[in-house]
Specification:
Layout lengths: L1 H16 L7 H9 L6 H18 L2 H9 L8 H14 L6 E14 L2 E13 L2 E8 L18 H7 L15 H16 L5 E5 L1 H11 L2 E2 L5 E2 L4 H12 L4 H21 L4 H13 L3 E5 L2 H7 L15 E8 L9 E11 L5 E10 L28 E8 L5 E7 L8 E5 L2 E10 L4 E9 L6 E3 L8 E5 L3
Parallel strand pairs: 1-4, 8-16, 9-17
Antiparallel strand pairs: 1-2, 2-3, 4-7, 5-6, 8-11, 9-10, 10-15, 11-14, 12-15, 13-14
Helix pairs in contact: 1-2, 1-5, 1-11, 3-5, 5-12, 8-9, 8-11, 9-10
């Protein structure tokens, strides 16, 4: 539950790793460790101190030492500065703040990662943290609506229809604020409670956290470790609780509660915890949304916010949308190559993605995992076949020039747009062991090629050939 300690400790944790690497570290760390007491007036000075410390940490000799020790936090320097600046608002310095901590189940892919699973409600009040409640997604299913409960542009409805009005599809878009706002609206409808934001995390990020805390023990005596957490929750649990889905969801809640209890004990390595949070943010597995306009404006500028910006860029994405309602994204592998084709005035870039259903056989898997609830499933359905949509996003203000797919018998797919980004959308259906390559060529893009990975169980294998 990195989200539970994200605000009150991440700054201090970074400080631990920097001890002795720059001057005046003792006084700086004293400030960092009391981040929950920092006022809005003091936060700007704290940001300046953090910026100064990173300048020192980026000196070649020092950076080499931190990298060797695994203590390089420059990848999340922007996040650290942002959290320092907005923490007085987020930590309940002005009033108590309550957040939805959402666990995304990445065995069923959605735009921001996975379908909403277990949750927690946490409260920050003058820097102190209290867990109000934990639970599974089951109570929220009754809060689904006929129409999307937030204001969205017409392009969003053309792309997703009214599907995001139900909990299962609330985070179809990879633009995290859309999903977070819908979750908050569904929560308010169900419980008549207004929350102040959302912290999203997935089982893989939680496994990073267990690297620092060590194993957790459930009331049953079962031990959950960083090595078995993902497989236990996203694969084995479906067979183990095949005939009792409520028990499976309770199992997830039990794991969450045991993790919270262990975190509250404070008995873990602070440096390892800092590294775990860093790795979770870098992999887009920890996301944050705030209803506070000041805070959200800052979060929109950093990876932690999960924001698809509208400024000119050369950013690409490949996104998987599960449409068969099964849990086979656990076995989905993605291999992406982004390559410059021309660098003149009409700059062109090609994106190639090969998707592979690594499942060898459906034997032994539960019917829940193998569900084919999609419309128009083939008559000769092979057990373990997985149907999903592939979205290939080009940069802001670019154009989709041409597309190609390996399966010539399938429909080619179509074009769309979201937040000024052109998209190639194709429907893919893979039998166990099968794979397919899809390509999209884009014109436009400003700056170096970059890629934002969708956090599923298997990380995307990415190869960037930027010749411009």
């Amino acid at each position: 539950m990195a989200g539970l300690i994200l605000f009150s400790s991440i700054i201090a944790l970074i400080g631990y790793s920097a001890v002795g690497l720059y001057q005046d570290s003792k006084s700086f760390l004293t400030t960092l460790k009391s981040i929950d007491k920092v006022s809005a007036a003091q936060s700007s000075k704290l940001v300046a101190d953090i910026t100064k410390s990173f300048r020192v940490l980026n000196l070649p000799a020092i950076k080499q030492l931190t990298q060797i020790a695994g203590l390089d936090f420059t990848p999340i320097q922007s996040e650290i500065s942002t959290l320092a600046e907005i923490s007085p608002f987020l930590l309940g310095g002005e009033r108590s703040m309550r957040y939805l901590v959402a666990i995304q189940n990445s065995a069923e892919a959605r735009g921001t990662g996975g379908i909403l699973g277990a949750y927690a409600i946490v409260e920050f009040n003058k820097g102190s943290l209290k867990v109000i409640e934990t639970g599974s997604n089951e109570p929220l299913y009754g809060s689904s609506l006929e129409k999307i409960p937030i204001d969205v542009p017409n392009e969003y409805k053309r792309l997703y229809g009214e599907n995001p009005a139900i909990l299962q599809n609330s985070n179809l878009s990879p633009h995290f604020p859309y999903g977070a706002e819908i979750w908050l609206a569904l929560w308010e409808k169900k419980f008549d409670q207004t929350l102040d934001g959302v912290i999203a995390i997935d089982p893989t990020a939680l496994s990073y956290i267990l690297r620092s805390t060590g194993p957790i023990t459930l009331n049953s005596g079962e031990k959950i470790t960083s090595d078995n957490l993902v497989s236990d929750t996203l694969k084995d649990a479906y067979k183990r609780f095949e005939k009792d889905n409520k028990a499976r969801k309770q199992y997830l809640v039990d794991i969450m509660n045991a993790t919270v209890k262990h975190l509250n004990s404070g008995d873990y390595s602070k440096i390892k915890m800092a590294k775990a949070i860093r790795d979770g943010i870098v992999a887009n597995r920890i996301l944050f949304y705030s209803t506070d306009k000041r805070a959200q404006s800052n979060l929109s500028e950093v990876r932690l916010g999960g924001y698809m910006g509208l400024k000119s860029n050369n950013e690409f994405r490949t996104v998987i949308q599960n449409i068969d309602a099964g849990k086979l994204d656990y076995y989905l592998d993605r291999d992406v190559t982004i390559e410059s084709k021309t660098c003149e005035n009409d700059r062109q870039t090609q994106v190639r993605i090969r998707v592979t259903n690594t499942l060898k056989s459906a034997t032994g898997l539960s019917s829940y995992v193998l569900t084919r609830a999609d419309k128009g499933e083939p008559a000769s359905l092979i057990a373990g076949s997985h149907r999903f949509k592939v979205f290939i996003y080009g940069p802001t203000n670019a154009k989709l020039v041409s597309v190609w797919r390996e399966n010539q018998k399938a429909e080619l797919g179509g074009a769309s747009v979201e937040r000024k980004r052109p998209i190639y959308v194709a429907d893919v259906d893979l039998a166990p062991g099968a794979s397919e390559e899809l390509r999209a060529n884009f014109s436009g893009g400003v700056g170096n090629i970059s890629f934002v990975d969708q956090p599923l169980v298997m990380e995307t294998k990415i190869n960037i050939k930027d010749r411009c």
